[in-house]
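JOB MANIFEST
job_type = single_chain_structure
chain_count = 1
residues = 231
[input]
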Amino acid sequence: MSTAETAIDALKAQVCALHAELIRWGLVAWTSGNVSARVPGRELMVIKPSGVPYEDLTPDTMIVTDLEGEVVDGHHQPSSDTAAHAYVYRNMPEVGGVVHTHSPYATAWSAAGEPIPCAITAMGDEFGDDIPVGPFALIGDHSIGEGIVATLKGHRSPAVLMRGHGVFTIGKDAKAAVKAAVMCEDVARTVHLARQLGPVPRLGQDDIDKLHDRYRNVYGQQDTTTTGAGA
């Protein structure tokens, strides 16, 4: 087996495993939702097959397509959202993973056509802004992808609420996109609950900027390989 084939097989295993995270965090029902990953250095992506129950997913059921959505490897039809994922990869080269869910709280905001205001520090950290609403578009071609790209290009948020549809998230890889989907549902629920108590003011922009910068550059375990163990 070639190095390229080995890399794709590893990515199939990762994408398959990440679908279990959608279930674990309550982001999907039945066969809805999907995760994809760009194959590094190739004009290819790995995505879930259409309509296959989550419990039946295996690495071998994952589908490899080109970035036009044409199947190059796999025995099933790819996800009905393949064209949208492919459009994102073609137009946002920095994106390595895309996730789609119909998670209930975030999808409720999309049904209302209302962005989730950046009202809590967790949103400042992860999203650096309000979570925006993208345009309504029907499934079947790259129209949804166009809306995702038009909304998120140049935006800090890795999540978009596609109006009347659900959540799409992007990331440097598929795991990062899944994390964004988990966090999107979490803050959608929290801000919804807060609004039952009264008005929810957005955080000040300067505070949001500081939160986002700290989260990106200070939070967590920093790489000390170039700064020395005592830094």
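[summary]
Strands lie at 34-38, 44-47, 63-66, 71-73, 97-101, 133-134, 159-162, 166-171.
The domain at 3-217 is CATH 3.40.225.10 (L-fuculose-1-phosphate Aldolase).
exit_status = 0
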